[in-house]
Amino acid sequence: MSSAIAIRGSGLAWDVDYQPVTDSSREIQRTWAQKRNYLQGSASDWLPLLEAAIRSIKDDCTIADWDGSGAIPVSIQTIGLTAKIVETLFTMLPRDTPAPDLIPEAEGEICISWSVDAGRLFSLSVGAHGKINFAGQLGKEGGIHAWQPIDATSRSTLEESLQDITRYVEKLYASTKARRAA
To answer: In terms of C-beta distances under 8 Å and separation of at least 24 residues, what long-range contacts does 39-44 make, across chains too?
Structure first.
C-alpha cells in the first residue's frame, strides 16, 4: 500500500484531466471549484484541511511498510504531537500565512513544509523523540538547518518551543507581503 498526502495552497488538487460525464459529477466539480477558492491562501482555511490530512496519516501510515518500500510506522505519539504543533502554529502565524504541506516520512516522522519558490522554503520534521528538526532557505537571508527540543506539556510551553519556527515561516513570506504592499 502506498500513501501520499500533500496539501497545496488551500486544498487538495483536482485532477485537471478529469472530465465529468454525468450531471451529478459536473455539479460536484462546480461545487469543488467554488469551495477550493474560499479564503484561498489564508490561515483561516488550512486548519481543517491539515486535521483531515492528520487523520489520513493515522489511517494509512501507522503500520510497518505503509509505503510499500519498508517505511517505519508513524507512531500515535508523533501524530498527536503533529496535531498539537499544527494547531498551535495556526494560532501563532499571521492569518494570511498559506497552508503548509503535511507529508508522512518513511522514517516514521511527519514533515510540515512551506514552499514559496526554489529559493524560499521551510520544513520541519516531527517525531516522537522530543525534538523538531528543521531546515529552510529564506531567500536573501540564506539558509538555516537545526534542531531544537519541543515541549508540548502545556500550550504555553509549546508556543515557547515554536517561537523560532514561527519567525522563520514569517521571514519566508516577508518579501511576498512587501511586493503585494508596493
So the answer is: 39/10, 40/9, 40/10, 41/9, 41/10, 41/96, 41/98, 41/99, 42/10, 42/95, 42/96, 42/97, 42/98, 43/90, 43/93, 43/94, 43/95, 43/96, 43/97, 43/98, 43/99, 44/95
- Domain residues of the chain, as ranges? 40-181
Whole-model pTM: value is: 0.73
Q: Mind listing the pLDDT tens digit for each residue in 106-150? A: 999 999 999 999 899 999 999 999 899 999 999 888 999 999 999
Identify the sign of the CA torsion 67, 73, 78, 83: positive
Rounded to the nearest 10 degrees, how much is the dihedral formed by the CA atoms of 61, 92, 135, 170? 140
Torsion of CA 181, 49, 101, 54, to 10 degrees: 150
